[in-house]
Amino acid sequence: MTGEFQEHQIRDVIRINYKYTMGGQSKFFIEIMKNKKLLGTKCTKCGKTWMPPRINCSDCYVPAEWVEL
């Protein structure tokens, strides 16, 4: 035996069923995929815009709203 390995390739299809959703930020991914729009979130109090989007402003701790970038 020379210690060398032979390469073997196996072609197959693997189906993956996902159990979990994208969650509260799923709107971000749907808009990119379907409408080719990039979304972020904007704080309703201080006006900071976040990308990637956040549910709440990390400075004011108030809910953020969706905005198109």
Q: How is this structure best described in words?
A:
Strands 2-1-3 form a 3-stranded antiparallel sheet. The chain has a domain at 23-68. The protein has one helix spanning 26-35; strands spanning 39-43, 49-50, 64-68. The chain is elongated. It has 1 helix and 3 strands, in the order H-E-E-E. The mean pLDDT is 85. With 69 residues, it is of the alpha+beta class. It starts with 25 loop residues before the first helix and ends with a strand.
Compact description:
With 69 residues, the chain is an alpha+beta fold. The chain has 1 helix and 3 strands. The mean pLDDT is 85.
Task: Present the secondary structure layout.
Blueprint: H1 26-35, E1 39-43, E2 49-50, E3 64-68
Antiparallel strand pairs: 1-2, 1-3
Query: What integer is the average pLDDT?
Result: 85
Beta-strand percentage?
A: 15-25%
Number of E-type strands: 3
* Poorly predicted regions: none
Strand order of the largest sheet: 2-1-3
SSE sequence, one letter per element:
HEEE
Largest sheet: 3 strands, antiparallel
With helices defined by DSSP (H or I, 4 residues minimum), what is the helix count?
1
Shape: elongated
Structural class: alpha+beta
Distance between the termini: 62 Å
Helix share, percent: 10-25%
Q: What radius of gyration results from the CA coordinates?
A: 22 Å
Descriptive terms for the model:
69 residues; alpha+beta; three-stranded antiparallel sheet; 1 helix; 3 strands; 14% helix
